[in-house]
Amino acid sequence: MKPLFQAFGISVAALTISTAAAANTDTQARVLWHQDIAAGYQDLAEQARAFAEQTDSWCQEPAAGNRDSVDQLWLDSFRAWQAVRFVDFGPIETDNRAWQFQFWPDPKNLVARKARYLLTSDQAPTAGTIADSGVAVQGFPMAEYLLFDEQLNRTDRALPAERTCQVLALVAGHIADNSAQQLQDWQAFEDAYVANEQYRDTTIRAGMAALEILEERRMAQPMGLRGTGKRSVYTADAWRSGQSLAAIEATVRGLQEHFLPGLTLLLERSNQPELAGRIEQQFVEVLENFPEMRTPMAPLLANDEAFARLQGLYVDISQLTTLVNDQAAVTLGVVRGFNSSDGD
Amino acid sequence: MMRLNRRQLLKTGAACGLTATLSGCSLLPRRAGDMPEQYTGAVGLPDGSFGVSAIDRTGQPLWQSPIATRGHSGCNRPGGQEVLFFERRPGWHCYVFDSSTGARRRTIKADAGEHFVGHGVFSPDGRWLYATASRYEQGEGIITVYDASDNYRRADTFELKGIGPHQLTLHPDGDTLVIGLGGILTHPDYDRIKLNLDTMDPALILLNRRSGKIIGRFRPAHHQQSIRHVDVSAGGKIHVAYQYQGPLHETPPLLATLESGQLREYRFDNDTQTSLANYIASVIAHPENDLVAAASPVGGTAIVFDGNTGELLARAAITDCAGVQALAGGDFLISSGKGQLVRLGADNQPQELASLPVYWDHHLV
User: What is the pTM of this model?
Assistant: First the structure.
């Protein structure tokens, strides 16, 4: 049967790595990725717990507490989530956990619709209500709505109104529980992840998909470079809190900390240290846009002079995406295809 | 086997004056069955738009018609005048094209509260169109029936008593619809999120198209083996393909045959199982022999196996391959999201026949 398993390489990119050394490098990369991603989940679990606890404590005694610290802890935990958001395989798939953390995009504004129902229904919500209400209720966008939505904040239902506080505390608790569970499940996943070679390509594809989403959907779309051509902050994520760009920074920083080291190892061992260096440098270039760009996206969309700053960030991210998704991926024989990345 | 690199392929195409790039200016093999001279598929285009594209056996585009959103699969209406394509799930429209010109003759809108899921099949006389669909608020899988002789009037609805139907085909007995019920609950409000992976209940369903009665329901060994694609050999043997919803490192069987009232599942060697990546996009039983072909874009792998014994006969690495068609003479044509058309048969000598500037979506008809 030997000839049968000499796979026919249609694609020039389909390099067969079969030596023991390459297999060893792949295993080392997975060990490194597992450890780096675990650190990201650890941070998420800690930040989310702090957010839940602060919410509980402030809601119990709003007058004595500090609303700003609740907002800040939402942001800290949301940024911790952004840092590991690229991981789209493994335990995060359980119960649609990634969607629970962040239901997005939300073109039908389900978050607001579900919130209005929870804030006005006759029955007081419980943890069970949140668990049964679907992913639009269970994550950071719902907490963001309750904390930052301008319309809501002009009504008497604005925080710290009792019902709104109840819902926020339950959602924050749900996020914290999911974060703790995700950390635990990721640790339990270690043996399977390290032992199975298909997680090499899966991990690289996860980083590629995150960069593509970043470039296309989190930047090009709201900037009006795609689709209708109209600029609209509502197609970005985290627009209610004005944190769309801060979230982008957190995603890039997360990729740099939790994805890049494993990728660099593979590239260096594939005799591509120069490409690895260029990618590392491009991460630095993107991040040099911050902290100046930690600003709401809407004003930058509103006038052309400010828009140029956004374009600068967009170009830097595009270049990073090209380096990783085209050059590194081809070098490592990884393809995200039209059918393979979104099937049916 | 002559292998051409991209530059050689482009030179060959230029010499032949073709938009498509056919190796050695040859004709594509004639396909088996209806419409032997034409291949039609949903495509993505490099500018991000979508269409339906037909090519002839020289690889020349016969026509390309734009559609607003991504398409999935379709069916040729017996008689050769029309080819239909469905939008991918959640599909709100099905388009009826003139097979010769690509002119859009009609748009069939899904009824309120329903959406198509990408597949349809005609009765042998070309009158009745059967399409898989979902009544999405209730999460109920249905077969919608249209009368093509009466302007595609909605004529009937068959209940599947299950969630998430996908591909259907007609058994050679002319009466039995063979339906892959994926078991996965989705809702258009929630993008393409799979809402019930713990409780999904996939099945192969056999349904009499005249009475609408379910005459058989067969479940896979594991409840997360989502049955999505189906085909039937000329002799009536039913083949099904799964997409496994569990962890990637678990590699359960992905292909099965209905035998003695049970799904006999085929597990190949570990390498092959891994290379199929728990995802089969198409399965086709060859009408001229006992061979079956399947393609996995996720694994970038196409295989051919003996449909009677399950013995693996050929395996090729084809990036993003998804569509499969039977070719006259006994081989298969595999299409890819990279625009490639590759011949693969039991001899395990894959041959790239053409490379086109389109992303072939999942299915060729």
Answer: 0.91
